[in-house]
Amino acid sequence: xxxxxxxxxxxxxxxxxxxxxxxxxxxxxxxxxxxxxxxxxxxxxxxxxxxxxxxxxxxxxxxxxxxxxxxxxxxxxxxxxxxxxxxxxxxxxxxxxxxxxxxxxxxxxxxxxxxxxxxxxxxxxxxxxxxxxxxxxxxxxxxxxxxxxxxxxxxxx
Length: 157
Fold this sequence. Notes:
- The protein is an alpha+beta fold and about 160 residues long.
- The chain has a domain at about 35-140: Ribosomal Protein S5, domain 2.
- It is built from 4 helices and 8 strands; from the N terminus they run H-E-E-E-E-E-E-E-H-E-H-H.
- It has helices at about 5-10, 100-110, 125-140, 145-155, and strands at about 15, 20, 35-40, 45-55, 55-65, 70-80, 85-90, 110-115.
- The longest helix has 17 residues, at about 125-140.
- Residues about 5-25 and about 150-155 have low confidence and may be disordered.
């Protein structure tokens, strides 16, 4: 499947718990799934993004020039101390492209993160630019928690 077909197939699809679909501009319903896809041209490469918002977690995929899946990481807060743990679900452990990004996304969203990433491991500038674009989109979708909320959450524990 080409990356254009991928974008066309999944672009702005929302699937509710009742099986209904709508655009991603609709607010996600309780128990629903919101899917957002977009493409950015950065540093002479094309990055494809897909964000799937579930009730208590976010799945994000970043594809570099292709629709390949890449390495898959899961990140979540752990107790005590609300530190973030990250594990590699698919792909080698020697290539940590994406694991640090998954950790930072948990800290910014307060949600569990599953991140698939196929950015080349020798491209730290591209990885940083991809993370910035992903965070911008997550912020625009309302998935990034506010600084005041982070302070309140830390005081509550």
